[in-house]
Amino acid sequence: MFESAPQASFGQLKELYRFGDRCTSCEIEVRDMLHDFQTGRLQKSRGRLPLRLWLRLYRQRRQAFREAKERQKTALRRAGLFVISDDRIESVLVLSNVGFPEDHKNANGRRVEFKALLYDAGGQLVAESDQSLRNGASRDYTLEQLFPKSQIPKPFAGCLYLDFYRLWELGSLRPYCLFRDRKGSTLWHYHDKYRGNQNVGYYHASPIFLTGRRCWIMACNLMEKPYRSPACLTVNGQTLRTEVEIPGMGTLWAPVESFFQAQPPVEDPASVFWFENRDPIMVWFAWEKLEEGIWTVQHH
Amino acid sequence: MTSNLPAPRLREWAPSSHIILHGPDVRSIFTFSPMVIAMNPDVTYFCEARVFGKDPLRPIAKFVQEDIALTGSWSLSSSEVAAQCGLDTLENYIEFHAGSRTFDPPDDFIVLQVYGHYASRDGSMEGHIPSGYIYGSSRHTRRGRHYYENIPGIRIDREFQPFALTVNPFVRNTRMSVLLVEDGRVIYEGPWLPAKAKSVLRWTLPESEVREITRTVCLITRSEEKTSTFVGMIHGPTGRIASLDHMHPFFAALY
Known about the structure:
The structure holds two protein chains of two kinds.
Chain A: H1 10-17, H2 24-38, H3 51-74, E1 76-85, E2 89-96, E3 111-120, E4 125-134, E5 138-141, H4 143-146, E6 156-165, E7 176-181, E8 187-191, E9 204-205, E10 213-221, E11 227-235, E12 238-246, E13 251-255, E14 272-275, E15 281-289, E16 294-299
Chain B: E1 16-22, E2 26-32, E3 45-52, E4 61-68, E5 74-77, H1 78-85, E6 90-99, E7 115-120, E8 127-130, E9 132-133, E10 147-155, E11 160-168, E12 174-182, E13 185-189, E14 193-195, E15 199-204, E16 216-223, E17 228-235, E18 240-246, E19 248-249
């Protein structure tokens, strides 16, 4: 099927052959196989095609490969992470540039280059640097290591963007941060949530109220304009509303309960918090286990 | 002659996999809100939880909640599950199937995930993680002879040691192994471990692999079926959990 129309889009093939109409798993698998085929990774049988057809396919595939190479030169892949550095906790970026285990070499070459950009809570660009990571490396970077030439204010809460250029595939490069407490007993992983204009679901978290734990929100505005939204909290079966604003490219870091004029319950497993505005932002939630210094961080 | 079969649906809501932990020191709370993916306020949603024991074909407990509003939520605690199963401790596979009875997925986001929150008295198990994809997510991912997932920034020294919880959501047994990669070299290749059908496999770093100096590596899991693995780290001196998150496959594209 792929060889019959090597440059066809997934949508065109789907319409032509009606695959993936009844099973979304098959749809996803065929779409990935098409991607592998068009990037020359899918193994196919040899010697069965007439020479003329084989030559035509060969030329088309070379053309597709050249075009993909051209796109790769200019394609930008941005990743984004909330970062914090104060007297209790700091964020440490961790990155691995590991090739796919069954490949002979890393598809992204000997090293990967990226630009790191740091915005503060008010949305101001406070630091930037150019970095590279060689094939196979897995390393961590504190904000000081990432921006050695910049003076980062303390305490600091903001957003870190990583712009990757000339990537052939993302592979293992989706970045994580470690949420490290200064006592050295927590190294909590949380990963990039940059998704551009792709808009699915609502930013929400549940449960908010658990015994002995406080829930914090970490939100980074991806837009140049302010993000304004009703913030809602359902607790004890009652829904509370308030308005929240995050400056353009700015960051919010606060306990969820601080937005509302209500006495938080000790525990409510069905409590839910959400933003009604689905404009592009990145949101994580952290649960602080009071008095023990254990943090639990996750996106929603 | 007309067929009595219903017309095929273009897409259907797919289930997702998770781990339930319960005992004297640890408990789990699972919360579901349709807002995680859904956006249609005009329909109601359901969530079904099935807990499996030794028999992959017959769940030992089943819970269903219907008529959940878009901004509503449903929670299920491990205490309820343990009470229904008549067990004191649980480290079992739990499968969630959430969606709408009247509204099909409008795109290839077909899994309404459920978040599991783990809490412990002694700090040995804390976490908040989404359920894992069983049939795939709407991403371009790579696979070869095996399925792979990876996570960076894993410590393998006296201060922090990793552990992994692998979920096999299928009704057939499978195998998985763990690789540790540093500077492009595989410094540890674990044995193939059997993961029984609809069960949870726990892996911990062998004592012989714990390094005396600080070491940060990339952890890769390799499995014969599309399992989901959650990786955490334990703070050696205190025995408390220091990290828990889900892994990612190797992405084939830039998005």
